[in-house]
Amino acid sequence: MAAIEKDVVIATAPTQLCVGIPSACEVAVEALSSVFAKEESEAILLVDATNAFNSVNRAAALNNIPRVCPAAGRVFVNTYQADIPLYLDGGETLYSREGTCQGDPLAMAFYALATVPLAKHLSTTCSGSMQVWYADDDAAVDRVVALGEYWNCISAEGPKYGYKPNAAKTVLLVKSHLVSDAERVFAGTGIRICSDGVRYLGGVIGSTEFCDGFVGSRVGDWCALTKRLASVAETQPHAAYHLFISAIQSRWSYLQRVANADGALYAPLDRVLNDQLLPAFTGHSVPVEGGLRALLSLPAKLGGLAVRSNVSRAAAERTLCRDAIAPMVELVVGGTSTHEVSSVVTACRTLAAGARAARRVQQRNLAEEIRSGLPPTQRLLVEVAGEDGVSSWLTTPPATTMPGTVFSRTDFRDAVGLRYGLPLEGLPASCVCGKDMTSHHAMTCPCGGYPTQRHNEVRDLLASAMSEVAYDVELEPVLLPLDGETVSGIRADAARADIRARGFWTRQQNAFFDVRVTHPRPSLLSRSGVASQLSDNERQKKRQYSSRINNVDRGSFTPLVFATNGQCAPEASIFLKSLAAQISERNRDLPYSLIMRQLRARISVCLIRWQITCLRGSRHSYRRRLMGAGHGGFVVECRARAHLAV
User: Fold this and answer.
1) How many domains does the chain contain in total?
2) Is 46 strand, coil or helix?
3) 397 upstream amide cis, omega within 30 of 0
4) 335 has pLDDT over 70
5) What three-state secondary structure class fits 560?
6) Where would I find the H helices in 549-591?
7) d(CA 594, CA 251)
8) Residue 240 sits in which domain range?
């Protein structure tokens, strides 16, 4: 498909829009709406077919496609000329002899090219009618009498191509003063006739009152759906959040692009989001007015949760969509030569990219405005959340196949609370070590050995990934003892690095790595301050190890410094990019971007898990101390003091 897409687009567009046209459904809705609004247009006939994809006349298609699109002809002849067997349980076999084959990546292109001769025949026979096809959904705009002839023609000619119009699923939208004429022309056909409006490709065409009523009814359905999701989020907020972001929110985002309706109609939906869904996600009530609600509407990479506000967004989405698809709409309405299709598609993609860039600029400006009104500590948390990889734990879908990516309700809400500096439930006033309990203290307190375990977890994760590209990977390698050499930094004979991988940077050379996970100091109130602390840790590691490893072990040394929120120091970032590039080179079917996202996600999930573990461990230690005050409390205190001493 990557090889023949351009040829298929030229052969099918601007009549058939289902292959290679950006925002094709929006183009179809906008084109029909604009033509129907003209005075000379009387009606729109929306034709649907029975079992369309399974009914295509395969013999006719294989005869026509090499003529319509020679570049695609050979592949379809090779794949569809013989009956396609479907093997059933029990040894029975069915043979597919008509229609497209389900599961074929080229099925949509096959269907589009198969319907092009029918569309051309209709345009010749009914030359005054403007046609717009999206797969098997055919729409024609013209006078009522001409559309009657169009229906008779497609009913007679369509079955020859395997396109069987279904009158029960076909709708005629006619202007109100021509309803009687339409009933006379289409009498006995079984076609439903309406004058107020009709749904089309998930959008709506018709009067303002009908559009508003349609949007209002859809908003009511979505409010009920969101309330059901909020009840699920009470016990499973992580799964509910990803369901909302990936599958539900996009429903009304699409309608905002294709329906010219007042943004105030989405107010009930915003109320449900603010009053029920967001509290279920965060564990806190979210005020409608204020910086926190605006912050949560931003994308995750800008520090938000991507739960958008819809009243203010609807008009902007509609405008951006219309501007991006304008050249293709003009091409469809004008019926220009298909030789111009390629340049118009390129122009639409350029406009769409520009619209996305403009939206990103608006979001960044809004994020900066929101951050400026936040308290200093919360502002720093939000700024750091926008760093590369820090929000990966939030954008990674929960999957049982990836250990650790599924959060319980307490873990998810704790992670959100840490992300925005919200109060955390159940945090004791003091730690088991006797100091005041704060989030910073929980991340750095050695009681229970959590900082050490966190370090080891990150070390093991990186070593496992390095074993994909380097050989002779070793954990905790002992450095060569000093034999009169003069080096700076660490000099103990039993000194160790964290990881040794032969051949990672240079062939046959040992590459040594040492991992450090540090928590930013509470006194740091700027992003540059956090970055400076990470760089200081890198320089400290180099002072300890570089001289000895370079001069005695004759290897290279790379410090891998991470913040507890997942932020990388400069050399750790370079290391991850190199690791992803080498894995991609070894596994050419895996793109670099995918591997990099996975690496970032695994590190982010690992570190956020350990942030929660440090908090939960501190709570658990506190409860154990209270429960063991009479019997065994002394042992708990002694173990805590031993950990502190170590």
Assistant:
1) 3
2) strand
3) no
4) no
5) strand
6) 570-586
7) 26
8) 210-385
pLDDT tens track for 296-306: 888 888 888 88
Question: Is it the case that residue 635 has pLDDT exceeding 50?
Answer: no
Phi, psi for residue 253 in degrees, rounded to 5:
-65, -40
The vertex-446 CA angle with 445 and 449, nearest 5°, equals 130
Closest by CA position to 1, among listed 110, 93, 101: 110
Q: Is 301 in the same domain as 355?
A: yes
* pLDDT tens profile 611-629: 888 877 655 444 444 444 4
Task: Give the list of residues 6+ apart from residue 76 with CB closer than 8 angstroms, or none.
Answer: 61, 62, 65, 106, 110, 113
Q: What is the pLDDT of residues 73-112, one digit of tens each?
A: 899 999 888 888 888 888 888 888 888 887 888 999 999 9
Tell me which of 268-272, 277-281, 470-474, 485-489 is least confident: 485-489
Q: What is the pLDDT of residue 400?
A: 67
Listing DSSP states for 417-461 in one string gives HHHHT---TT--SB-TTSSBP-HHHHHH--GGGHHHHHHHHHHHH
Q: Which residues pair with 174 in a beta bridge?
A: 43
Burial of 6 (0-12, 13-18, 19+ CB in 10 A): middle
Summarised one tens digit per residue, pLDDT across range 25-44 is 999 999 998 888 888 888 99
- Among residues 371, 585, 569, the alpha carbon closest in space to that of 468 is found at 585
236 and 302 in a single domain? The answer is: yes
AA letter at 222? W
Cβ proximity of 265 and 204 under 8 Å: no
The H-assigned helical ranges of 234-340 are 237-243, 249-258, 267-272, 278-282, 291-296, 314-334
- Predicted TM-score (pTM) of the model is 0.81
Q: 307 in a domain, yes or no? A: yes
> Is residue 497 domain-shared with residue 454, that is, in the same domain?
yes
